[in-house]
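[Meeting: bench + compute handoff]

Bench side (C.D.) handed over the final construct sequence. Compute side (W.E.) agreed to return the predicted structure before the next meeting so the bench team could plan truncations. Sequence as handed over:
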Amino acid sequence: MKKVLLSAACLGTTTVFAQVKDSLLTKNVDEVVMTASRKKENIKEVPGSVTVVGEKQIQSQLTVNSDITSILQYTVPSLGTNSGQTSNTGQTLRGRQVLVLIDGIPQSTPLRNGARDLRTIDPSAIERIEVIKGASSVYGNGADGGIINYITKRSKTDKKISGISQVGFTGQPYGGTLGVRTSQLLSGKINKFDYTLSLAYERTGYTKDGDGVLISPTYSIAKMDNYNGLLKIGYDINENQRIEASYIGYSSRSDLNVGLKTGKYGIKPTIGEGIGKGLETTPQGTPKNHNIRVSYDNKNLFAGTSLNINLYYQDFKTVYGYSDTFFNGGQSNVISKKAGARFNFDTQLWNSANSQGEIIYGADILNDETVQKLEDGRFWTPNMNMTNIAPFVLAKIDLFKKFTIKGGLRYENIKVNVDDFNTLSTLKSDGTFTKSIPVAGGKLTYNALVGNIGIRYNIEPYINLFGSFSQAYSINELGRILRTSTSETIKNLETKPIIVNNYELGATGQLSSWLNYELTSYVSTSKLGASFVQSPDRALMIQRSPEIVYGVEGFLHFTPVKWIQFGGSYSWMEGITSVKDDGDYSTKINNSRISAPKVLAYVQARPIPALSVGLDMLHSFKQNRFEPNAKTGLYAYGEGYVPEYTVFNFKSSYEVNNNWRVSLGIENLFNKLYQPAISWWTARDSDFTNALGLRGTFMVEYRF
């Protein structure tokens, strides 16, 4: 398949907006980001909408909840609210799946999306989070809705050794909920070497709702051991050349042994009660996520040309709980191994007083081997081995230090080898099991030429305009399509890629020394999208049909005086699809992808130099987009009515002296009893669970 596409996503023509709630906004206009264009650049040069969650903001949120999915829901507009579980199902970005990276290393498993890619690192190891909103192919497969790139900490000192030690305790006003976390950061520089070492451990207690009742053990974050380690070593060969190597390891394992008491959707929540059946052979969680990276930079390779080379390897495994929906029961897992290389050349074409021009070019190579099996060895999906070789080129022109134009091309050359396999016998709604079918594998080939275009015009400080057209090209959920096959050969299955076109217009600026704003509108289309829908026997299947997703988002940040700042954001989206591909877009994409409108608001004050106090609010509006079945009165999966809810979090810190700091955070400050959105839109008894009640976190920090 060959197509010519204009894709702004190719090489980061998306914009950058810095959401900097914990530092003075007026001092962040020169912030540098790197994810959007694979090189460091000023946010004033990026024609699109990007959220940057800085280190201070991460640390502030960490005093409330160490779960990265919670941190993201409070800091990123257009990102769905979290589930409160180990799964990030439903936490889409602008209504589509997101590609998660750690220092540019892909963490997502789009060949079989297991929804465990957001929780793959401890926030104590993160320096900042760059969120590219809108379709992007800059880092390859899977970024239909955008990119979330965790940039890990690096050495920023000339001392031989410096560090931060943290010890914290979490707990609810109920027994058994006490948890503990500790982290240690060491960094320094010795001659031409620099290093960063980060270690973190967390042990969670039981999790209970606002009434003190145990929350459902399904995908639970309770009684879990979380480990994270980062080692980064750099060597400056000379002023132009540097080599860096890093290892990041993450592991989470739960030993929760609580029984499940299934409730009634919309009436009585599913809870944890008694002792579990003990059928699990492997602890739930993500037992391993190893990331190895080696990079080389040369700022002056030849004739104004710089070079960046990144080599990486990822070894990932996540394990789910026991399920009797398989014949003879079992636990499933997703196993993925990736190896890749990125070669990036940057040549300055000219540099005059009123204009500059440069060209970035190179190639990406990725091998992704993903499979979903049961822990007893039975295959649920076949082994899928994808190789992607993608050369690219991007041109950038800056005129009069006000006008930026970007455009580029990327050629996707993807091959997927699929092994022969037998489908698993799974439970049907009538209590019987499907018949196992032998399926002949084979080779799938995909090719496309994609391009990009983006423009930004910085007219005056109070008004900067941007517009872009971007695309994503992804092989999404191939494993789920294959595992439900009713054909004896993959050649008869619909496995075409998802190509997303994203159109974006926005304005951003600084109206005064104390007021910043941004307003963005977007539309994304795809001729062959992919959504979970419920079949007549209530099993989940992938629906492939044309789609349109559109929405708006915006923010306001005020800093009237140095000691206080406040503001917030609003995001709204809608999604429609033509199920029969006949031009009739009267069917709505369900709530598993289209999140309810969301308001984030905050106030942060420093009444005295040593004390900081703040309050965060999240308001999720109601979502009533579907009607229940006229005969049964039941909603289909993804179509359940979602009521509105509002949650407040309190956070504070006190600088005892230059070395010591204590902090106190309270999640769900008013102990509100509510259900997260996923409990409602799934419309299933077993998924109808309450959210976490009031929980406090006390931390002590020592810097040296």
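W.E. noted at the follow-up: The first strand starts at residue 4 and ends at 6. C.D. will use this when planning the next construct.
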